[in-house]
């Protein structure tokens, strides 16, 4: 928690470039989202001086890193005001939804799908969509802390539960 207070002090000081980048092109928001440092994320977003869709050298955004780690609180803070590009593609063509599916974070998948604003059919440079990745993975082993999520409502996907067919049988 000590680092959080230091970050908040730097943000409130006003003399720090909050979109500064390291040698990988990553910003403080990118690292906060990946590490699920919710207090820092809230402060950075509320300050208004950060690019929520900042891209690093790999083309990845803070939302992409949060989805890869299954950091649901980070995802919520990033998407709640609607300014973040939910379908941001990195240099491989992968979206945050793709990362959440690949790394088997069912809560992150559910959060992104429930926005109703993610494209489930966009393909990466290998020609694979988030649905393709879901079909290739055994979702019985997904990282769910609260048990299976069965109702993944998505307006463009009537049978959204097809994304996790094995869970319905558990």
From TrEMBL:
What are the GO BP annotations of this UniProt entry?
regulation of gene expression
- Which stretches are annotated as coiled coil? none
GO CC, one annotated term: nucleus
Which chain regions cross the lipid bilayer?
A: none
The cross-references to SMART domains, in alphabetical order and at most eight, read: ANK
InterPro entries in the record, alphabetically?
Answer: Ankyrin_rpt, Ankyrin_rpt-contain_sf
Q: What is this protein called?
A: Pfs domain-containing protein
Origin organism is Ajellomyces capsulatus (strain H143)
